[in-house]
Amino acid sequence: MTGEPLLVGDDLHRSFGPTPALAGASISVRAGEVVAVMGPSGSGKSTLLHCLAGIVRPDRGSVRYRGTELATLSDAGRSALRRREFGFVFQFGQLVPELTCLENVALPLRLERVPRREAERRAGEWLARLEVADVAGKRPGEVSGGQGQRVAVARALVTGPRVVFADEPTGALDSLNGERVMRLLAGAARETGAAVLLVTHEPRVAAYSDREVVVRDGRARSLEQVA
Amino acid sequence: MTGADPRRRGGRLRAGWGDLVMGAGMAVTGGRSGWTRTVLTALGVGIGVAMLLLAAAVPGAIDARAARGAARSDQGLPGPELSAAANTLLVAQVDTVFRNRPVRGRILHPEGPDAPLPPGLTAFPRDGEVVVSPALRELLGSPDGALLAPRLGGARVAGTIGPEGLAGPHELTFYLGRDNLTADHAMRLDHFGGGGPADEFGPVLWLLVVVVVVVLLLPIVVFLGAAVRFGGEQRDRRLAALRLLGADAGMVRRIAAAEAGTAALVGLAVGTGFFLAGRQLAPLVSLYDISVFPADLRPVPWLVAVVALAVPLLAAGMALLALRRVVVTPLGVSRQATPARRRLWWRLLLPLAGLALLQPLTDVRAGRTAATDGQVAAGAVLLLVGTVTLLPWLVDLLVRPLRGGPPPWQLAIRRLQLDSSASARLVSGVAVAVAGTIGLQMLVAGVQDEFRRPSGQDPARAQAVVSLYGPPESRRVLARIAAVPGVTRSLGTVSFVAFPASVGAADPDASPVEVRIGDCTALAEYADLGGCADGDVFLAWRDRPVPGLGPGTRIGFGGGAPAWRVPADARTVPVRDDPVGGRGDGLLVTPGALAYRPPDEALATALVGLDPTDSDAVERLRSEVAAVDLTASVLTLDATRESRQFTNVRRGLLIGAVVTLLLIGMSMLVGVLEQLRERRRLLATLVAVGTPRSALGWSVLGQTGVPVLAGLVLAAAIGLAMGAALLRMVGAPVLVSWPVVGLGVGLGAAVVLLVTGASLPVLWRLTRPDGLRAE
Amino acid sequence: MSIGHTFLGLLESSPRHGYDLKRAYDERFGHTRPLHFGQVYSTLSRLLRNGLVAVDSVEPGEGPERKRYAITEAGVTDVQRWLSQPEKPEPYLQSVLYTKVVLALLTDRPAADLLDTQRAEHLRLMRELTRRKTHGDLAEQLICDHALFHLEADLRWLELTAARLDELAKEVRA
Hints:
Chain A: Keywords: ATP-binding, Nucleotide-binding, Transport. By secondary structure, chain A is α/β, with parallel strands linked by helices. Chain A has helices at 45-52, 75-84, 101-111, 116-129, 145-157, 175-192, 203-206, and strands at residues 7-16, 19-29, 34-38, 60-65, 68-69, 86-89, 163-167, 195-199, 211-216, 219-222. In chain A, the strands form two sheets. Chain A has a six-stranded mixed beta sheet, sandwiched between helices. Chain A has a four-stranded antiparallel beta sheet with strand order 2-1-4-5, covered by helices on one side. In chain A, α4 (116-129) packs across α5 (145-157). Chain C folds into two domains: 3-84, Arc Repressor Mutant, subunit A; 96-173. Helix content of chain C is 68%, strand content 7%. Chain C has a three-stranded antiparallel beta sheet. In chain C, β2 (53-58) and β3 (67-71) form a beta hairpin. Chains in contact: A-B, A-C.
């Protein structure tokens, strides 16, 4: 665990209306590590993830990715960053219902102007790696929840991101499917060297991480000193 | 005889009623999303209903205008000449035009205490006073007022005409009091109103009117059909939840129908509100010199009843129709997984039936009956409905073979492949409107020659003609006209009628001769003079010499003036069309050849050239002339002349087409927003994972663009078919007018671009990554 | 866990030497705590005494490892009875953790830190088990899952207690 952290959030504040979601949260993520963000509902876990991913702009504080302050990037710049450097897995509703699973996985590559044939070839490899090669031609509405989530993981990883943000990726799954998704996500991330920021409220899912950060009342606490 | 089952006891009817009540309740409750859906539907339906009510109010508005017009008419029925009495009134018409707006003007002179008062007036204006309409009063008070004031004889404004004396709130009209008005220049009346019936529309015009109504109202109905489907997907999900609670398929259908019907009822109320509110705004609007009072917009009661009944029923029917295509099971809604390949035959049936109805009507001129009207209307409706039925099929056909392409395109195509009907539904209103517009415009273009003929006027030679009857000093008056700023040229002549002395004035064959006095340049406008110098006299012959007129003929000017002899060297010259299109034979005399003053009854005419860059030149000319004589006429020259009824119908069509397209555009916008709203979460997620918003914008454009393309192609085809059928019907040659097609298609495309543009800000807002939080 | 019953169960399929028994036991059930030989032979002599096993054969040579044990009829009945009897669910009413929290509150020590420390320790173990699970076979996975679910339950309790700590403090000090 040497070297400059990959992603650093420092003293992040963010309110929605009068309710503060983040009140001075700090966190850093090193390359290749899996960090679980835990905490009670409404503690600001998701907001922290959104801030770190440049989806939500913090009211105060800074987010630096590989030394670049996200606030200095334009909206398009942050979009491009999310497209190229980050991958996302959400709880549900992230696959485009009209596209086939293969096309869904190929979409981030195609947005990066990768030719269709090549994009779909790579997408197919990822589907196989996540053990869902058989659903390639189906639409998301036609596959099971666990399969859909694995397709989503494939889509998050297909561009070779440095950071994968996973917000309750197993929230809608039973424990068997949930663990399967986590095993594949953590395994694939470790193989490719991607860091994973994993928001979850399930301890067994958090157990796939290397360390844990607890968010309480809008502040993040790292509990790694014990480990 | 057990009677134990309460359900059975109440009977199916009561159970069904319960479902309906429940559905109605769902329309107005059901949380925020339920509300949003109801509001959207109500808004959409409301807009449509307001339009239908407006259409239903048009006959009333026309009647009200016509009734007021008839009540103030001073063109009394031809009857016995009246002589001055206590109950008579002298009226002179002094209409003018100000900046292309017609101004109705009357000079009044009551001849006794019981003289009839025109509607809208409380008292006669006294000598030198004028009573004006509110719009005219406002105009006079504006900076332009000074230019207009001379046409009112410089009179003091003494009052305002009440609404009952006006055709519409924006009408410019005045009544001027003048004691010196004489019967020579005026008409004597003992009552207002009772003019002849309004000009009848000919059969071709009626055909136009019938088709216009169809073309304008049908898109509104199509739109209503789309509006009641707003939020359909969400509704389907809720119905699935109801199935889970134990509702059977029948109950679900009843609940859905009642829910849609209730939303439509709310829409009906909203539409009535829109209409009532919009009616109050009516006086703010003045289109093509036509303005209406709010009170004029009274929908015909039975049409209102039809709208009130048809809209909720249509909504319920559409809801049931939509349910036919989905299977609502307790575990969710499945659209028939791979949508059945759309069949063509029944979709083609409607337009073909429409053509079949229109085809046999080869000559509407022969006789118009209610039956032919009905046949035309039904045929046009069926043909246009064909646009709606064929569109999804055509979109399918276009989209099915498509694959890939750049991501935005792929997103759009895939969505269309999965469900083309939602997008097609949005566009069908535009397509119907465009098809109707093309068909109608073709008819209009085909028959306009019939209603528009050359006036014979030549605006290249003169832009206005001033005619003054018996001006006291005609030469000075003509000089005044020439001096008006903006007048580039003024050719004045004075003409009067004289009699060759060789024929007795009482002779039945007596052929009076028109004598026109003017300088060489002026006279050259009336005949090809060849050479001309002051002192010359010309005999202008049309095709044969005027009997008894030739060099040396003695001519009596009447009024005790000594006779004048046509000089022996008077040349005979061919007559030439004057700029007004007139062609008169007679004597053309240069001033040097005639020592006498022309008689008082002479007509001074000036052919006036105007500075084309100075749009106010004609206004100054009119005012200058009015200052000389209010009753003098100033005619602006135009190469063609159009039937007024035809003009009105054409204007109505244009107004209607624009309003309809705007409405359709609004409805499309609502529909597009609704579709975006349903996909809000997905859109936010896509942006969160780094999809450029422009890609999403392009996919929205593609998603509407493809159906629009299909719709416009179809609309052009159907419009051309309809236009051809209509032209055949009036016996006009069937010519494809490409500019008309281009106009229709262009209008449709413009609406779509506008709608997509207007929906982008909402797309932007919905795709703010914060949207992810809406969980 | 009853080692005696486990031995009987293992012997039911075939007679075994003491050494074989220990190996079979360690392989399947004794992942973290392999049996001592003393434990093996004391258990076997108890079973022998109670007539649940019998010495099947003795190979020539010295020492207890030369004996082969077989299950008796009574032994089979005993295993049968053991398997068909449900285990008594543990009530978990005596919790060291709870005691620690209350004591921390009573003595004004930081109870929240105590909970966090415990939490980190639990999660550390869960991580380790998860890692083992990822690389293990199905049996390994099930054993780890069993532990993981218990640890998760503890962890949830820690979370809940942390959330209600203020309330608890009021009650304890009242």
